Amino acid sequence: MLGSTSSMLVDEQMVPENSVQQIQLLASTNDGYGGVRVEIKNPMDSNVFGDLLRASISQWRQKGTKGVWIKLPIEHANLIEAAVKEGFRYHHAEPDYLMLVYWIPKTAHTLPANASHRVGIGAFVINSKREVLVVQENSGSFKGTGVWKLPTGVVNEGEDICTAAIREVEEETGIKTEFVEILAFR
């Protein structure tokens, strides 16, 4: 990757007859969950941005990227329409930027909703032999660290916390559980 402070990078790709074609892409960083983050820092024509975005999405799709997050500072609001035309939707806005998201796979997206607050769960699962269920993360900050932990997750909007605990354990382990009680609430 070239120029981490730039909004673009150049990717070389092989084309027929062993020639090399340079394709400009948007600079991005991995988000730790199989997606990428793009932060637009420099002024750009919206048509140029649209072309870069299409090329980047194509490249990310080939690489198996899932979600794309674009942080668009207010001074680059001229790029919003181009992103929306490519399928991006608003995720949230702050006084000085807009966050846009796009889900690449042809599956239901797993991008979290914008949070006014977030409720997380940690499930303490114990069997009749008094063995405690622990897991290792497949994504996120603990991925590949070898750390064993309780199954955790986020309660979906409108979801009951008890239902969320059961769902998260089954999603992470395939094990069906029964909710007994809340041990702690903070």
From TrEMBL:
* Entry keyword rRNA-binding: no
Per UniProt, which keywords does this protein have? Answer: Hydrolase
Does Cell cycle appear among the keywords?
Answer: no
Family in the record: Belongs to the Nudix hydrolase family.
Q: What is this protein called?
A: Nudix hydrolase domain-containing protein
InterPro entries hit by this protein: NUDIX_hydrolase-like_dom_sf (IPR015797), Nudix_hydrolase6-like (IPR003293), NUDIX_hydrolase_CS (IPR020084), NUDIX_hydrolase_dom (IPR000086), Pre-Nudix (IPR040618)
Q: What are the top taxonomic ranks of the organism?
A: Eukaryota, Viridiplantae, Streptophyta, Embryophyta, Tracheophyta
PANTHER family tied to this protein = NUDIX HYDROLASE 5-RELATED, NUDIX HYDROLASE RELATED
Q: Where is the Nudix hydrolase domain?
A: 116-186
The organism named in the record is Vitis rotundifolia (Muscadine grape)
> What does the record give under GO molecular function?
ADP-ribose diphosphatase activity; NAD binding; NADH pyrophosphatase activity
